[in-house]
Design goal:
Structural class: alpha+beta
Radius of gyration: 36 Å
Distance between the termini: 53 Å
Largest sheet: 6 strands, antiparallel
Helix content: 40-55%
Amino acid sequence: MQLLFGYIFIPPPSSAFILLFNNKDVWANLRAVRLFDQILVTFYQYRCHITLLIAFLDYHRAFLWSLVFSVPVFFTSMVFMYIPGLKNVLETKVVNMLSVGEVLRWALSTPVQFIIGQKFYIGAYIALSHGYANMDVLIALGTNAAYFYSVYSVLRAATSPAFNASDFFETSSMLISFILLGKYLEVLARGKTSEAIAKLMDLAPKTATLLTIDDKGIVVNEKEVDSRLIQKNDVIKTIPGSKVACDGLVIWGQSHINESMITGESRPVTKRTGDIVIGGTLNENGVLHIKAAKVGSETALSQIVRLVESAQMAKAPVQRFADHISKYFVPLVIALSFCTWVSWFLAGMFKAYPRTWIPSSMDSFELSLQFGISVMVVACPCALGLATPTAVMVGTGVGASLGVLIKGGQALQSAQEVNSIVFDKTGTLTICKPMVVNTRLFKTMVPQEFYELIAAAEVNSDHPLAKAIVENAKKMRGSEEKLIWPEALNFESITGQGVKAIICNKEVIVGNKSLMLEQGIAIPVEAEEALAETTGLAQTGVLVSIDKEVIGVLAISDPLKPEAPEVIFILKSMNIESMIVTGDNWGTANAIAKQVGIDSKYVVAEAKPEQKAEKVKELQSTSI
């Protein structure tokens, strides 16, 4: 570990560092080795946050101090000179033609130039010592030219009874302040992305429940351990409401996992024996036994963190081009400044322009020097060197604050060429919170009794649609403090179809059309019409049967996000086509497309995950 100029540089961690300790007891305990390695990994991951914090504090302090001195310089030069009382005070002569205002501006701009702006001198020295000129060189030259010309002008006024000084102290001090502001905003924007990275790392749980299983597969012991101690092939117990500790394979249990932090899909994914789970995702219901497959830096979460870190440090192609141009830009500006000064000086020497162009207090040399300095000062805060990295950092920072991790400047630059965007339906265009929006009964029955029966069955299910039905039943029951549903006997959950149970001596079946047909239940015409209507409205129809007779249909909808139609409209105004690729049925997909304003020809429904990926690749190779 090496500490240089307040920035911490740490080499990538490795278990090989353990060799430094040469301790056989440590090597005997593999979990201790694992813990030490993970501590190094964590420390290495946080190195950029420490660096950013130091840079943030450094530029914040420098910018505030520069304002303390630069703002009075600006006001004494540009504002107070137009206020009669203050103007008289500032124009009071101290020595010969040297005024109080000039002395104040000189005194206030000096700390900005040489103390607050010293980092530019250091940067310029390092660049020149390596044989090239960077933006720090141009900033140092431009501000120094303005400052020292002003010093020359002030000193000449102090020694002359007729010379009227023309100083540029406000130019040098305000330039340094603005450049520090740009640097500060860049670090601030970069910090927003860094905060998103820190939140990503915090997704991993601190502890995990480690199971000891005998040869017969029976759990003989369970122990809470630090999640960093998990090794491959360890079996971890994950309870409802907790996060998955590592990437692994489900070897026992069934549950729904919220994988939105990885996939962006907010609908929980069903996980059964043999399914792969991702570390950091949320287990919503059900107990799972997971066999660890990837731990530590091998997990998907760690790879995402590394990807974002590397993307944050990578430069966009246009930024690399700007850096390349900057190598020639700085010498070019210096050459142009010198040529401007020489040209005007020679023109004045040979009387190529009228003498009236020269102010009464100057000669041709001083006028030409002013023009030369002006070229350098104007080019000093070069947009080529400052605007590009600032735009990239602000773009990634704003994205991170809104939950969008942008893969560096390359992605931002490529975004200008986008002509089509593919949307998933659930959780992207919709809010992914199913709710009952309509109930149709085909037999005379009290709605509260109807919902009490179906809620008593669905309360035993962990399916998202079941939760929506139970929530609606709670609303029907009113403000009762303790909601106790009738007991459900012989409860059975049929995966992908629905549930059935005996409730109050009645056989209650809640599910889709295929479940009813399998149970030998006839579906009346009005129920078929109701199902068709719900499909056309982008809703899910759930049939309810009591004692082998269809009693009603529940319409469950995943409401559209309020801003979705506006987003599609804005994209259309930018000549960007929008497309829906979803695993839902065609009726629902077309209905959602119609609501947001997407043409039906740009809808792909009933698509599996691999088919979605293929569609994106197809669009990348062609254009809509």
